Inverse folding.
């Protein structure tokens, strides 16, 4: 218990504080914590979502009160989860070994037949067995994992490692120029392969980890890609089965602990807690608040986000776009009533607002021109522009706006009413959001 | 399958009725095309993106029929049929270039929505506050 009237306890890494603890006097507290058991596939909030990747029609707070909703099917955000430590394995769907859209069955060509003869999981790691048989009438070279799924932004200078475990489970592995191949490739914006580093894997009866690391060099490179393929040299006769386990492609020069990547919305890691998110599609996704947030006096707004630019970074918006607004990008923007009544924060040395980087922004307004802002717990001491009046706040009524990008990892809105937020309460709110968002303050 | 649907602003009313006719309720689909701030050339466009079943991609290419749930005739079928006549569904496997958005076509493009929007010639014209 901390002596500030809040029921705060710590048990290992678990913080039992809830925004509900902030309800005092006439305060209006909006708890926008993202948890899968608070997300529903119907707007009434009665049917829980199926899991990661599901579209969300309603979100409730810890009391079961609906706080967000979206009736329009195409405008619904998706639920996603990822390790609190972040996503390293960028091979989307690589854990779904039975899914032929990810782990493909190549067409029979050049006299070679490649079949997926089995799938399973050992010690928590999924595997697929591929049998390769025939006599190659010409060079056989086919991918067995869909390359577009293992593609992510990267530029010259990046270091990228593709890796997997492989084992010969049947037949005779070819001696030279044929077998399982692992590439790390540089691609341009049109998905053309510009450069590649590869190795034909020397697979044996013992499970072995292989990795292909490449330092990118091409100035036109915009993407990295892992390619897992079967190569059979012209004229070779082969019949072997290889087991491929725990494929991963990541930034860095070494293979790190394997992450289970079932989709871009579902990445988990053994021993690492997950953080929960709502994913925008950058096109038309947003959610309505069940009631407007329109404090007349002091208020605090805070959220954890990825996404960048404008309108990509918009976290909270009003029915008339931009009248009341909270945007988190390189700059944190609070518009109390259009940009004519706003505060902008861009201090030097603040944590990154780049795309894909999680950040916790908190803004506290205590008077018409009295405002403070923190990013990842760092108070803005410079780079602050205040225009007009920051009170009252024109009604905020939406999470995001059509065009918002990235992901939302939870937020809290507090109309302080007749009970000003104490420093301790503000700090606990910040810690709570940081923990839920996987951010170290 | 993720798709982006691009509709000229002048046809949004009819297109939303087409979405209802192909959907499961009025409420979930009547505002499918409600975004503003996109443009192709000089033609303002509304865009939407969602996960569409392969069956939906087939259905949108045929004249719609009034859905069984629409006992109240909430869907304007004449409008839905007008909108359907403007639909063009792109097949990425065709190898054809991505069709360009225009004032007279409702484009349905499978793929990563932002990439397909750019490929179709869309630009966002929304300004800052």
């Amino acid at each position: 218990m901390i002596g500030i009237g809040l029921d705060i306890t710590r048990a290992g890494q678990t913080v039992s504080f809830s925004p509900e603890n902030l309800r005092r006097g006439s305060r209006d507290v909006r708890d926008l914590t993202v948890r899968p058991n608070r997300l529903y596939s119907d707007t009434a909030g009665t049917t829980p979502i199926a899991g990661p990747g599901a579209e969300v029609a309603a979100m409730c707070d810890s009391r079961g009160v609906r706080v967000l909703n979206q009736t329009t099917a195409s405008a619904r955000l998706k639920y996603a989860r990822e390790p609190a430590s972040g996503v390293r394995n960028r091979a989307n769907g690589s854990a779904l070994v039975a899914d032929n859209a990810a782990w493909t069955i190549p067409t029979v060509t050049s006299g070679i037949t490649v079949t997926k003869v089995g799938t399973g999981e050992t010690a928590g790691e999924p595997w697929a067995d591929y049998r390769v048989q025939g006599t190659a009438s010409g060079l056989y070279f086919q991918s067995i994992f869909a390359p577009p799924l293992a593609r992510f932004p990267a530029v010259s200078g990046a270091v990228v490692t593709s890796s997997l475990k492989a084992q010969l489970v049947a037949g005779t592995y070819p001696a030279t120029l044929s077998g399982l191949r692992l590439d790390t490739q540089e691609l341009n914006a049109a998905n053309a392969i510009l450069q590649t580093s590869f190795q034909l894997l020397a697979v044996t009866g013992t499970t072995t980890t292989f990795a292909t690391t490449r330092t990118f060099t091409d100035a036109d490179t915009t993407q990295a890609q892992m390619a897992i393929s079967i190569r059979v040299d012209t004229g070779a006769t082969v019949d072997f089965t290889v087991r491929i386990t725990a494929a991963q492609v990541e930034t860095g020069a070494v293979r790190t602990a394997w992450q289970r990547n079932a989709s871009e919305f579902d990445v988990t890691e053994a021993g690492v807690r997950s953080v929960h998110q709502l994913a925008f599609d950058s096109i038309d996704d947003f959610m309505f608040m069940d009631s407007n947030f329109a404090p007349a006096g002091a208020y605090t707004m805070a959220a954890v986000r990825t996404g960048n630019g404008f309108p990509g970074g918009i976290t909270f918006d009003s029915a008339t776009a931009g009248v009341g607004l909270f945007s988190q990008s390189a700059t944190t923007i609070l518009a109390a009533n259009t940009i004519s009544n706003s505060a902008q924060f861009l201090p030097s040395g603040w944590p990154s607002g780049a795309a894909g980087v999680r950040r916790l922004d908190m803004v506290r307004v205590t008077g018409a021109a009295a405002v403070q802002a923190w990013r990842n717990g760092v108070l803005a001491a410079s780079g602050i522009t205040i225009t007009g009046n920051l009170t009252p706040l024109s009604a905020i009524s939406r999470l995001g706006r059509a065009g918002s990008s990235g992901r939302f990892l939870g937020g809290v809105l507090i109309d302080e009413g007749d009970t000003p937020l104490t420093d301790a309460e503000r700090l606990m709110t910040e810690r709570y959001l940081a923990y839920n968002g996987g951010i170290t303050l | 399958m993720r798709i982006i649907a691009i509709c000229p602003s002048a046809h949004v009313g009819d297109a939303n009725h087409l979405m209802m006719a192909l959907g499961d309720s009025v409420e979930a689909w009547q505002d499918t095309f409600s975004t503003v701030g996109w443009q192709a050339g000089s033609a303002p466009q509304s865009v939407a993106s969602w996960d569409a079943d392969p069956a939906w991609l087939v259905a949108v290419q045929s004249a719609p029929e009034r859905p069984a749930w629409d006992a109240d005739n909430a869907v304007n079928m004449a409008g839905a049929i007008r909108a359907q006549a403007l639909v063009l569904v792109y097949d990425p496997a065709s190898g054809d270039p991505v069709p360009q958005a225009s004032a007279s076509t409702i484009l349905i493009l499978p793929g990563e929505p932002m990439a397909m929007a750019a490929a179709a010639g869309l630009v966002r014209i929304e300004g800052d506050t």
